[in-house]
Each structure stands twice: as structure tokens, then as C-alpha cells.
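Before relying on records like the one below, remember that each one covers exactly one chain. Contacts with other chains, cofactors or solvent are not represented anywhere in the record.
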Amino acid sequence: MGEEVTSAMPLLRRHLPTVLLVLIVLLGAFLRFFWIGVKTVWLDEAFSVWLARHSLPDLWSWLIRIDQHPLLYYTLLHFWQAIFGDLQGAVRAFSALCGALTMPLLYWAARRLFDAPTALIATLILAVSPLHIRFAQEARMYTLLTLGVAAALFCLVYLLMDETRRPMRWYWLGLAAAQAAVMLTHNTATVLFPIALNGAVVGALLWKYWQGTVSSWPALNDAGFERRWLRSQALAFVLWLPWAIPFVIQAVVVDRKFWLPAPTLDAVWEVFHNFNAAFAPDWLPLYPLWDWVYWLLALLGVIALRRTPARALLLLSLWLLPFVIELLVSLRRPIFYERTLLWASLPYYLLLALGIRRLGSVEAARWNWLRAPVQGLLLAGMVTLSTLGLVGYYFFFEKEDWSKAAGYVAEQTQPGDLILFNATWVQIPFDYYFRHYGAEAERRGLPVDLFDRGELEPEMTEADVATLRTLIEGRRRVWLVYSHDWYTDPNQIIPRELSQLMRRTDQRQFVGLQVMRFEAR
């Protein structure tokens, strides 16, 4: 019996990482699909659903005219929605699936890059991350973007670590396809990801020319690597090229006017904090200091790579360069936004895993017994913080409550009522729920109807007051659905004019919006 157990131990050790990976991925997938249909869709999600309902030519046309994003996510959601429908849980399931697929890709890249324990730790951090779970439960493109980055990182690591000098054609094609997918998923990544990727590889090549070799990236020592790298980048560019003109059009529109405020130190801190423990309660003892523990671990991860600077450069480039570039661009036109940087958390989690491994590694033999307890304590602390964050997300994080607002108006609406929307596109999430009640009412947007001006977020001005007065002339009752007014009606022109011309008889506050009812005097 003892001999059978002894002989089974090597087999168990060999397959244990795979078993743990499966358990971690199943946990992460469960957390991403858990209660996925409970929270109501908010404005951006409803816009995704609205776009995906259109035929592909119309969808792409609308994107170029009114949106700031490429076509890949919306196109895939179009087909997903055609199969599974457009209820809030169904449309979000596509993002949850992308989030689930990201975990094994990160593991395989990390295992090839470092070792199985480091890969498992990084994957566990990703699996229970409240920030990633939040965006995996949104009908938006950010989890697909992260999946594309994970796929590109996976291919890149296998290419750089290859010592056989085989052609590796499928990995090169995979890298180009994944990079193009990233560029076709979000316009900021169109610039940021190639810069970060090439910054790491070109930096390693410069190191090679200076030192004569790059021990941590064996493939770079092959004379043909530069040529294959350039071909891969060219192929990624060619795959993205059909979107080049729309990209320029969208970039010009964003440069002319965009709603994001200039980033502050607090905003930057919050993004880094959310990478660590989003939604964690502030009643925790020493709450702000926990972030410093994470950053110390990341620093230890960098130190652990001091003998392989090319690997350190790869992770630092993919993690920090996107932040730096977004902040620099924001000096001209603010674009710094947490969700656009979600993918940069992957290299950060790898550094955290390396830091835990280094802190748990003690060279003196008499301290070896501390290794497992230290690593276990650190991981337990991080998982506990993430669990508390998940409680905060699942139970206390609220999205704009268009469902209750639409239900309230539908129950109160009378024949001849007019429903006004201060921002033309807030009609989309309202209609997403209003359609289920079978209520009939004329619905109009201000300053113009939905996208009639070819602009996503037209601002109400004094020149548009005449249009408002014409719309309400002769009306007995008017409803105003009021949301996102800080940039669409910053001077509160619409409620001011309605209050002067009619009598406000009701006002209800919902999460993220107000509903007001006005009646003729």
C-alpha cells in the first residue's frame, strides 16, 4: 500500500497544476456568470444592444457617424444577440465568456514565462478580481479587449522563449491576429498596445545589440527574428487597415470635443487601487495601506526579474506605458479612463505573483519552513480583500435604474402624453425597458431627436429653446427623463423652461436619473 502511494506521488505532482488551473478557471467563470442578469443595463450597455440589433452595414455606418469605438465587439455582439437574444443577462454572457477564456491564456503564458506556481497565483488573482468581474458582467468591449491582449501575450511569450528556431508560423499568425483584434476592439488600444508591445521587444533588441545576447529571450538571438517581427507587425497593421479611415474620423471628433474630465491625482490613484481591490469596503483596518502592500509585491516582482531585464521590460512596458501615454494625451484632450486600461492589469498581476513567490522564497535553510505560510498568508489576504470587494459589487454596486424609471412612466402614462429626453441617446436604455410594458407615448429627444444631428451627445443650448417650446405647445402633460445632464444640459435649460411654461406635478429620483412630470397650468 505504501509503495502504491509513493508511486502515485509523482503522477499527482505532475497533474496537480492542471487540476488547480481547472478549479481556478471554474471559480472565475462562476463568479463572472453569477447574478449576471440581476443589475439593470446602463446607458452604454443599452447602446451596445441597440447597435447590435442593426444589420451589419447599418451598424458600421452608425459607428463611424456617432461612436468612438471600432467594429469588432459590436459585430460579434450582433451575431451573439441574434442567437441568444437581447435580455440583459444574455447580452452580458458574451463578455463573461471572454473573461473566462482570458484566465487559461494568462496561465499558459505565465507558465511558459516563469513556472506553474507563479502562473497559478496570477490566474487566481485574475479569477477573483472584482474589477474584472464587474466588466465581465457588462455588455461592453473591455473584457474582449483584455482577452485579445492575453492571446497576444500568450503567442509572444511562446515566440520569444523558443530555442528550437522552428518556423513557429501559427504563433506568428496568432500574434498578428490577436494584435489586430485588440486594435479593432478599442481605439485607445490601437495606439497604446502596439507601442507597449514594440517598446518591450525593441528594447530587448537594443539590449541584444549592446550586450551581444539576450539570455531571457532565446529567439531574439536568431538572426531572422527582426524580419519575422516586422512581418508580424505589418500583418497586424494590414488586418486593421480597413478601419483606418473611420479611426481618423472618430479621433478627430474626440479631439474636437469629449466628455471626460481632465485626470487628477485621485483619479490615477483610484485606477491603481481598483486593480488591487475594487469595491473593497473602507471600514477595513488600515484600508488605504493595503494598496501599498500590493505595490510592494509588484516591486518585489520587478526585483525578482533583475537577472532577466528583458522580461521585466515586457511586463513594465505593458503595465505602465499605457498609463503614461493616456496621461500625456490627456494634457491636450482628456482620455484617461479606467476601463480602457483594464488590459494593463494582466502584466501587473504577473508581477504580483512574482512578488509573492519572491517573498516566500528564503535562501537561508533554517527559514525554509516559512516559505509556504508566508505565501499562503499573502494569498489568503488578497483573496479575502477580493471577496469583500465582490460582496460590495454584487450587493451594493448599482447601475442606472432605467428599469424602474421606465416602469414608473409606463404605469402613469396617459393618451396624448409626451416623453422628453434631455440627452438624445438616453432614450435608448429607457426604450429597452419601456417596450415590455406595451405603453404608447410619443418620445422625443432634445435638442434633437435620436442622432438627428449625427452627434452622440449634442448639448442643449439657448438656441434650442424654440424647439422645446414647439414640442410642448398644446400638450396637457409632459414627462422629462433627465440623465447625464452635466455634459448634455449643463445649464439646466430644459427643466428651467418646462417649469416656466408648465407646472411640475411630480419628480422621482432613480439611480442615475430623474423623472419629472409637468402639466399645463
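The longest strand covers residues 503-510.
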